[in-house]
Amino acid sequence: MDLEKILPKDGPPINEVTKYIEKYKNDLIVIKYGGNVLIDRNIFNNFITDLSILNKLGLATIVIHGGGPRIKRELEKSNIQSKFIRGLRVTDKNIINIVESVLIDFNDDIVKSLKDKGSEAVSIHTKSKNKVIKVIPEIEELGFVGIPNEINNEEILNIINQNKIPIISPLGLGAENQTYNINGDTAAMAIAKSLKSRRLLLMTNVDGVLDKNKKLIEEISSSEIMEMIKDETITEGMIPKINACLDAVNNGVTAVGIINGTKPHSCLWEIFSDKGSGTLIRQ
After folding, report:
1. pLDDT tens digits for range 38-97
2. Of residues 258, 218, 224, the one with CA closest to residue 241
3. Alpha helices in 117-265 (DSSP H)
4. Which bin fits 163, alpha (ψ -120 to 50), beta or left (φ > 0)?
5. Is there a contact between 65 and 167 (Cβ–Cβ < 8 Å)?
6. What pLDDT was estimated at residue 58?
7. Which end of the chain is more exposed for a tag (fewer CB within 10 A), N or C?
8. Do the Cβ atoms of 65 and 110 come closer than 8 Å?
9. Directed axis angle between helix 184-195 and helix 238-249, to 10°?
10. Does the CA dihedral 185-187-188-194 come out positive or negative?
C-alpha cells in the first residue's frame, strides 16, 4: 500500500500512521458527524476525504450523522416554528415527516460523495432495507422523539465485513413502524456501546473540552469531568454531550474523542497521531 499516495500532505506523519493502522486494524471506530459541522461544503468534503482514507487503509468505521441546521432550514421554508424541551425538538406528525426526509437526503449525499472518492458506503435509515435502530418514545411532550432500545449489530457488522462504510441516520422505528427522531449524540453513543467500539469520535465545531482558562484538555478521566461539571467549568450545551461520553466509556467503549470537525483532517490527526486533535475521554 502506497501511503504517500493515499495520505494528505497536511495530515499526520507516515511513521505514526503506520503504527496506528496496526493498532486499530481489528477494532471499530464510530464517528458522529455533528449538525453544525455540516453546513460548509468544504468542511463536508474534507470529512468525506478523511473517511475514504480510513476506509482505504482498512479501518472499520461507522458514521452517524446529524442534520440540525438542514432541518431548521426546511422547517423555516414551511413556516413551522420549533419548540425545544431540554435541547430536544418537539416533533409532531408534520415535523417528523420533514425531519425524516431531510436526514435521508443528507444520508444519500454522504453515500454518493464517498462513492465519488472510490469508497463504498451503505445507507441505513427508516426507509432503507436494513433497519438498525429500534426506539421507545423519550417523553410524551416531545412527540416522535425516541431513545434507542435495540441496535441490530449484525446488520452493521455485515456491511463492515464487506469493507463498506455504514452511514446511519439518527432515526429509529417504534411501535407500528412509526419513525422517531433521535438526538445524534444519543444515537452514536447507543451504537458505540452496542458494538463495544474502540473509539467514539464526536465531531463538533469546538476544539474539545476546555479548562477554566479556556485551554484545551488533551486527555481526561470521568472523575475529573464530574468535578468540572460540579465547579461549572463545563456548562450548558456541553453537558449533554459530556454525559453521552461518560455513558459510553462506562459501558464498554474504550475512549471517546471530542474533536473539531472544521479543522483540516482532524479525524486523521485524532486516530493516527501521537498528539491527537481534541479531548480524549477515558473511564
Report:
1. 678 899 999 999 999 999 999 999 999 998 888 999 999 999 988 888 878 899 999 999
2. 258
3. 153-160, 184-195, 222-230, 238-249
4. left
5. yes
6. 94
7. N
8. yes
9. 10
10. positive
Q: Tell the residue number behind the cell numbers 422547517, with chain if given.
A: 75
> For cell 425545544, what's the residue?
84
pLDDT at res. 1: 76
List for the chain the helix, strand, coil content (%; round to 5): 45, 25, 35
How do residues 20-35 score in pLDDT, each as one tens digit?
Answer: 999 998 999 999 997 6
pLDDT digits (tens, 9 = 90+) for 225-252: 999 999 999 887 788 788 889 999 999 9
What distance in Å separates the CA atoms of residue 164 and residue 112, rounded to the nearest whole number?
13
- Counting Cβ atoms within 10 Å, is residue 9 exposed (0-12), middle (13-18) or buried (19+)? exposed
**Model confidence at 191: pLDDT above 80:** yes
> Radius of gyration (Cα) for the chain, nearest Å?
18
* Cα gap 92→282, rounded to integer Å: 37
pLDDT at 35 (0 to 100): 65
Q: Give CA–CA dist 172/125, Å, rounded.
A: 7
- Distance CA(32)–CA(35), nearest Å, equals 9
In sequence order, what DSSP letters do the residues of 43-67 get, joined into one string?
HHHHHHHHHHHHHHTT-EEEEEE--
Q: How far apart are the first and last CA of the chain?
A: 35
Going by DSSP bridges, is the β-strand pair 146-151/88-89 parallel, antiparallel, or unpaired? unpaired
Report how far residue 47's alpha carbon sits from residue 87's, in angstroms, rounded to the nearest whole number: 26
Q: Which residue has the cell 481526561?
A: 220
116 pLDDT exceeds 70? yes
Q: What is the pLDDT of residue 34?
A: 79
Structural contact between residues 106 and 38, judged by C-beta atoms closer than 8 angstroms? yes
